[in-house]
């Protein structure tokens, strides 16, 4: 019998089997033998190109990746190797702190702005996920940084610096994505109100039977764009043309994906794509997604220039991000799009 522990990291090392609440039905398992491992299938862009004569063609390529894959990777993004190493280091150190120290931050309330938790939403989900996570609101930084863990001692400084830089990167990417849609460079960021930025530090302990469970099951991201940093342990998989494809981590690059709000703004030209995290029996894994989001009161809907009533009727009704966000957390991670209930009736039933 496994000893009940709030956090998976404190349970995982005591068991040599996956406890029953983590076991997925046989129809919903990672099925490793069917996962494709094509290296480099997600385009990798050199962001130095945004500052030179090739800006226009790079923006076209980014737009094409958003349309075809919903995912792309970036290098030469302006975030130093040192900061990336430090961010991964303090994250790992945090999850290696004694249980009593980590539990100071524990909460099961998804609306809390700083919290350590486990799985996805322990209050609503049927099966648990092989993951612990520290979730931090990050913007405006001065409103939240005092809530963040103060141990390891450099955590706030390093993670604060990292958030400032990922925010800058998100803004550059949103400008490029706006332009790729034929919108004003500032359009998307302007549509997000004061906007928000959240970060999750995902910790996936080694798992004795990785074929029975997920770190995170297939889901689409609720926000605008996600900028994912991963350590060198593979685990991210993306659904492409009905097949799961493993994304091999490339050191010091970020993996960027389109979230549901960008799908809405683009009136479905760009797609928020299913992705998942699988675990392995050998090594712990850390991944750190930065979620760039609208403000809770921002009204989301298709950008008017992309929603003419003849060729491209608006697919979504307007809604506030807070309406959407509550729905996202309460229903648990599901492969069905959370956006369906915000579709205009005539398109939903079409
Ligand atoms: O761990 C990963 O690679 C994916 C993480 C993710 O999809 C998430 O936190 O929403």
TrEMBL record:
Coiled coil: none annotated. Signal peptide: none annotated. Keywords: Iron, Metal-binding, Oxidoreductase, Vitamin C. SUPFAM superfamilies: Clavaminate synthase-like. Residues 194-294 form the Fe2OG dioxygenase domain. The keyword Zinc does not apply. Pfam families: 2OG-FeII_Oxy, DIOX_N. Belongs to the iron/ascorbate-dependent oxidoreductase family. This is Fe2OG dioxygenase domain-containing protein.
